[in-house]
Amino acid sequence: MTLNFSCCQDTTHSEHIAQNPKHIDNHVDNHIDKHIYNHIGNHIDNHFDNHFDNHIDNHIDNLIYNHIGDHIDNHIDKYIDNHIDNHTYRQPYRQLYPQPYRHPY
Questions:
Q1: Helix, strand or coil for residue 7?
Q2: Residue 101 domain-assigned?
Q3: Deepest in the core among 10, 27, 60, 62, taking most CB within 10 A?
Q4: DSSP per residue over 81-104, as a string?
Q5: What is the pLDDT of residue 71?
Q6: How far apart are CA 34 and CA 26, in angstroms?
Q7: Which helix (H) or strand (E) holds 46?
């Protein structure tokens, strides 16, 4: 009995494959691989692209933080310090540090 694979135009090739089980396995494996790539290749590629993009984004974020993070932190610290200073200077000392409550009697 001769197997005819629709993807093999050459009948002698399909006969040769049919007579050699190992060749059949290889042929089927190649065919399956082709189908897997066609069906889920794009899906895998998208996952890879997303992972790669995330990796690059994280690397860029780390570089930005390492290079200008301290600079940004200093600005934030100054802003907070100024805000606290402005707030405390507007308040009388006693209101900031009230004395413990004492009963009048």
A1: coil
A2: no
A3: 27
A4: HHHHHHHHHHS-HHHHSPPPP---
A5: 83
A6: 12
A7: helix 21-90
